[in-house]
């Protein structure tokens, strides 16, 4: 009864999800038709990531207040985000007015009282309080047990233990938990593909020197789900030398006795402070006049280096050039605005904004510029303009070039050959930052690139646009496409507004006399197109199963055994559940599925890998066990030539390294069993071994398996595995039994394992194409499927005999000679299922499937 109930719950949830997505699609279409809005769909989440209303026709909403206007919009269009209860799902309203006098309204997403990580909606209004745009992340289709199985303290201890084992704490300073908050965490959001959703504690651990890490610990299993670093590498001021016991400068003191590098750190921190204060009204990096702490020659940053660790900016002699100093403080300003994580494209944006502010301040502050050529670059000319770290002697000169990133092997556009696709460098944060860097340089100075000719806007306009995007639009996991939307929206917002001038001194520049025009907007759009921020990259990611060539013709024309599930599970298959904890095991077994991944047609057999911890799901720690699919004994014919092979098509999407499936075999009618080893596969072998880490209690731990999902994807592609059965000792006139087993640990999952088109064959027994075509054209079987009576009509064929085999390959009739061109086969006394009619002459053989329904 429990099994049926759980299957019903899963079925209802699937139907609900599909219906909700259909409703959302219709609502989006209605919004577009009504308002002419441009909707950018977040492909990862299947919800709108950005909605931009027409420049000349912003959306006028009902209501006397900003809050009332937002409520009016959500009451009408909540279904575009698959939201049913606005009050329960969206909370913590924040209303702010920016330096331009424009208002913003931000709502955070919650699931049953638990905040959803980086899930929020941002509403942006013009000076008339009409809606210009909406952006953010909304995580849909959540069905997670929101009550944690482990408490906050235990999760914190797990995180500390894990971090200590990673050997990141080179300084040896005491690690401390700074924050520990429970979230609904969508794993993969940063990488651009949500694979699973977890109840997780987000735990920040640091030592205020060389460690600052964010660990996400599953609230049910205690596993590490994700980890991001919080240390970005490369006015109330204070300077220490080596450590905080050796103060060399505090605000108002003299810089006379400081070294040049120490002086750079103090002076440039002041330039940063006044730049943001004068232009954007932001008072220090937290907008609350926080003290700007610097440590020079910090031994814990592996000099030569420069970092922001969440508390202090840290440099070494030889690294503290003014652009590098401003770069690190840029990370501090990011922490208190968009708070972009330091990973993948979000991390590249994090790095890019620091480069942008670092180089902008360097080119405006008239500090330490002796001998530099900062002239505007055209074409391939190289000057010091747009070079990062050109005065940092410890780096040997510049380390990045924003005008031409390819000089240092960094990409200048998304489809460029230098685009970083690997996981190293935190997903390419220092590499792929070249793309938004290049966009900024083009917007400031103009230029021609990738078929676009851009007229530059200058620093004042560009800086205001980029700061607005960072401070008002971007979220922690924003990627390049969202960044492009944010830059366009920010440009549109600022059209016609008088912009403050840029100054790095205590004296503000005052109103610049500049404002953004519609022509400027067009130039910005061209720059974004040039660097291809909305274009898919050319990365090719690893798949668990590869596409392979078709196997030999004998698999289709003369199979020894085959199963495709199209008529159900045939008699002889044994399906078994083997839980480790029978009392708390959530019943599940191999079942038929027609709604297959990647829109594959037909029916497959499916081993579910549920995300244990779902509502009504039971105890998360006790779901370890195996579900087994076992064949009957399959007879092998008297084929003395060639090798016997097994092929099957499948698709795997499981919790990586913890849940997975493999195949076992028996050559003695089931008395003894062994795993088919990976080296017996000739195509698409197992991709991993189930880990023993974190006390994995999967009963198949340390076995070779298929496990996980394709890289950079929420699912996996289908593939065909081929196994050399002869290498296992299978010979003519023997038999074999097979087991497909899927093992799960105590908690969490993904989708499952799909098996289809199983066939055993011997390539030495292949019919020629001509034979197959001739026989197929001259044999007609009807009705098929039938109740057991099959009519056979044959043309131009004589001297044949036939034999009938069941699904296991066992003959159920003697050889019967064919003397007539039309005859009847009566199998009405046999059970439902698939049988095989094998017609054979001295020269020709063909096998036809018979289905009794």
Automatic annotation (TrEMBL):
Residues 1-20 form the signal peptide. The keyword Signal applies. Gene3D superfamilies: 3.10.170.10, 3.10.450.490, Galactose-binding domain-like, Neutral Protease Domain 2. Transmembrane segments: none annotated. It holds the Pfam family Peptidase_M4. Keywords: Hydrolase, Metal-binding, Metalloprotease, Protease, Signal, Zinc. InterPro entries: FTP_domain, Peptidase_M4, Peptidase_M4/M1_CTD_sf, Peptidase_M4_C_domain, Peptidase_M4_domain, Secre_tail, Zinc_Metalloprotease_M4. Residues 781-852 form the Secretion system C-terminal sorting domain. Residues 96-137 form the FTP domain. Residues 268-332 form the Peptidase M4 domain. Residues 338-498 form the Peptidase M4 C-terminal domain. One of its GO terms (molecular function) is metal ion binding. The active site is at residues 328, 430. One of its GO terms (biological process) is proteolysis. Belongs to the peptidase M4 family. This is Bacillolysin.
């Amino acid at each position: 009864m429990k099994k049926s109930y759980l299957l019903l719950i899963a079925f209802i949830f699937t139907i609900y999800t599909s219906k909700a997505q259909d409703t959302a699609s219709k609502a989006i279409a209605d919004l577009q038709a009504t308002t002419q809005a441009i909707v950018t769909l977040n492909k990862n989440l299947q919800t709108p990531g950005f909605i931009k209303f027409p420049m000349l026709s912003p959306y006028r909403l009902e209501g006397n207040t900003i809050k009332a206007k937002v409520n009016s919009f959500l009451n009408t269009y909540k279904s575009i985000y698959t939201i049913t209860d606005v009050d329960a799902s969206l909370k913590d309203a924040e209303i702010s007015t920016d330096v331009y006098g424009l208002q913003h309204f931000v709502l955070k997403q919650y699931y049953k009282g638990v905040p959803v990580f980086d899930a929020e909606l941002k509403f942006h209004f013009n000076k008339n309080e009409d809606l210009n745009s909406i952006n953010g992340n909304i995580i849909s289709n959540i069905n997670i047990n929101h009550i944690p199985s482990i408490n906050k303290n235990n999760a914190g201890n797990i995180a500390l233990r894990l971090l200590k084992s990673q050997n990141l704490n080179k300084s040896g300073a005491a690690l401390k938990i700074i924050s520990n908050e429970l979230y609904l965490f969508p794993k993969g959001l940063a990488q651009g593909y949500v694979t699973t959703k977890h109840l997780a504690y987000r735990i920040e651990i640091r030592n205020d020197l060389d460690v600052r890490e964010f660990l996400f610990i599953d609230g049910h299993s205690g596993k590490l789900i994700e980890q991001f670093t919080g240390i970005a590498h490369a006015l109330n001021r204070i300077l220490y030398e080596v450590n905080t016991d050796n103060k060399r400068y505090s605000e108002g003191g003299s810089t006379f006795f400081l070294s040049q590098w120490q002086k750079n750190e103090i002076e440039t921190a002041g330039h940063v402070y006044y730049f943001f204060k004068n232009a954007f009204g932001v008072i220090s990096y937290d907008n609350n006049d926080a003290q700007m702490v610097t440590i020079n020659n910090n031994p814990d940053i592996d000099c030569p280096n420069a970092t922001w660790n969440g508390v202090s900016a840290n440099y070494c002699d030889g690294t503290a050039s003014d652009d590098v100093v401003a770069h690190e403080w840029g990370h501090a300003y990011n922490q208190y605005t968009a708070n972009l994580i330091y990973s993948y494209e979000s991390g590249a944006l994090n790095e890019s904004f620091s480069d942008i502010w670092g180089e902008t301040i360097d080119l405006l502050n008239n500090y330490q510029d002796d001998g530099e050529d900062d002239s505007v670059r055209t074409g391939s000319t190289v000057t010091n303009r747009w070079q990062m770290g050109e005065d940092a002697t410890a780096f040997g000169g510049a380390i990045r070039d924003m005008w031409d990133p390819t000089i240092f092997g960094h990409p200048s556009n998304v489809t460029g050959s230098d685009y970083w696709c690997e996981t190293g460098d935190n997903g390419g944060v220092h590499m792929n930052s070249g793309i938004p860097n290049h966009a900024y340089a083009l917007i400031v100075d103009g230029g021609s690139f990738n078929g676009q000719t851009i007229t530059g806007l200058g620093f004042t306009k560009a800086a205001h646009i980029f700061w607005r995007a960072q401070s008002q639009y971007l979220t922690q996991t924003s990627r390049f496409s969202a960044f492009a939307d944010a830059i366009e929206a920010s440009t549109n917002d600022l059209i016609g507004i008088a912009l403050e001038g840029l100054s790095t001194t205590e004296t503000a520049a005052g109103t610049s006399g500049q404002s953004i025009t519609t022509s400027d907007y067009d130039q910005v759009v061209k720059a974004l197109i040039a660097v291809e921020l909305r274009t898919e990259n050319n990365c090719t990611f690893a798949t668990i199963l590869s596409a392979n060539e078709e196997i030999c013709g004998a698999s289709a024309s003369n199979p020894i055994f085959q199963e495709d599930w199209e008529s159900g599970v045939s008699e002889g298959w044994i399906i078994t559940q083997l839980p480790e904890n029978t009392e708390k095991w959530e019943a599940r077994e191999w079942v038929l599925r027609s709604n297959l991944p990647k829109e594959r047609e037909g029916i497959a057999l499916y081993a579910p890998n549920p995300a244990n911890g779902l509502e009504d799901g039971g105890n998360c720690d006790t779901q370890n066990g195996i579900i087994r699919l076992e064949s009957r004994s399959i007879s092998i014919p008297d084929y003395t030539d060639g090798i016997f092979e097994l092929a099957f098509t499948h698709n795997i999407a499981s919790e990586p390294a913890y849940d997975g499936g493999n195949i076992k075999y028996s050559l003695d009618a089931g008395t003894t069993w062994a795993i088919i080893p990976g080296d017996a596969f000739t195509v698409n072998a197992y991709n991993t071994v189930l880990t023993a880490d974190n006390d994995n209690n999967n009963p198949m731990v340390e076995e070779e398996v298929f496990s996980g999902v394709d890289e950079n994807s929420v699912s996996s592609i289908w593939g065909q595995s081929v196994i050399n059965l002869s290498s296992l000792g299978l010979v003519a006139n023997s038999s074999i039994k097979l087991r497909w087993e899927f093992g799960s640990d105590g908690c969490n999952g993904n989708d499952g394992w799909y098996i289809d088109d199983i066939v055993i064959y011997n390539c030495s027994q292949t019919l020629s194409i001509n034979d197959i075509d001739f026989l197929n054209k001259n044999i007609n079987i009807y009705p098929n499927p039938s109740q057991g009576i099959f009519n056979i009509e044959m043309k131009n064929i004589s001297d044949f005999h036939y034999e009938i085999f069941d699904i296991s390959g066992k003959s159920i009739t003697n050889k019967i000679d064919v003397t007539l061109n039309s005859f009847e086969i009566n199998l009405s006394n046999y059970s439902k299922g698939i049988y095989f009619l094998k017609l054979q002459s001295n020269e020709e053989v063909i096998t036809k499937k018979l289905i009794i329904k």
